[in-house]
Amino acid sequence: MKNSLRFKITFWIIFFLFWYLMGIRINSPTIFPYPHKVLLKTISLLSDTEFLYNLGITAIRSLVGLFLAFFIGFILGNIKNEKFYVGIRNIIDIFQSNPLIIWITLALLWFGFGSKTVIFTTFIMLFPNLYLSVYYALKNIPTEYIELFKIYPISKKNYITKFLIPYIKPFILPVLANSTISSFKISAMAEFFATNNGIGFLLSYAKTFLNTEYIYAISIYLFIISKFLEYIFRKMNILKEDLKL
């Protein structure tokens, strides 16, 4: 534990030192601002109501996209039909074979500028893994359990609450946790091209006016949110801990 903490502290000291030296070498705040200025900008955003408002908008969009992906994935994952699965699998292959920017472009054509495009893009990117995790978790229920419930039948409610949910949780929760972390990043990227609010829009606006410190500051917040969610999910034993040095 001490070695791991020491390594992290050493890494960040070297990282910021390298950043500062690169800032001196490049000598252009527009391209490579100094780390202390970026940190001051990052701190100042905590009291920036516009930033907090747009952060909330991105969070809502990402959660809506995540909910739709999980809800529809869970419903479809319960359909135990091989032909239906093959059809969904082919659709998933289409989803996963195209980069994110393709879906953002198509969503702009279909839904126009706004939240629908962001939510749709988030859904498209998260649905495949959520659906497959549910489908395979249910498919791989041991036949011994199925035969046992035929011999000793229980109510549908008890089957779902006392067996099915506890059984599939270890398969689904890690995927759901990773999807939650990814949803914020996906929504922010979609907002960059498709909305006039949200974190992605702020990045686009800052890029237009070459406000590099603002871009770096928002990037730090995206990093912090991602690592904070990882920390929470690890404390809940949903995601595995990093290897200790």
TrEMBL record:
| The keyword Transmembrane appears for this protein | yes
Tell me where in or outside the cell this protein is found: Cell membrane
Gene3D superfamilies per record: MetI-like (1.10.3720.10)
Which keywords annotate this record?
Cell membrane, Membrane, Transmembrane, Transmembrane helix, Transport
Quote the Pfam families the UniProt record gives: BPD_transp_1
One BP term from GO? transmembrane transport
Superkingdom of this entry's organism? Bacteria
Q: Does the keyword NAD apply?
A: no
Membrane-related topology note: Multi-pass membrane protein
* Chain ranges of the ABC transmembrane type-1 domain: 51-233
- Ranges that cross the membrane: 12-32, 52-79, 91-113, 119-138, 159-177, 214-233
GO CC term, one of those recorded: plasma membrane
InterPro entries named in the record: MetI-like, MetI-like_sf
Q: State the family it belongs to.
A: Belongs to the binding-protein-dependent transport system permease family.
**What PANTHER family does the database record attribute to this sequence?**
ABC TRANSPORTER PERMEASE PROTEIN MJ0413-RELATED (PTHR30151:SF0), ALKANE SULFONATE ABC TRANSPORTER-RELATED, MEMBRANE SUBUNIT (PTHR30151)
Q: What is this protein called?
A: ABC transporter permease subunit
Upper classification of the source organism reads: Bacteria, Pseudomonadati, Dictyoglomota, Dictyoglomia, Dictyoglomales
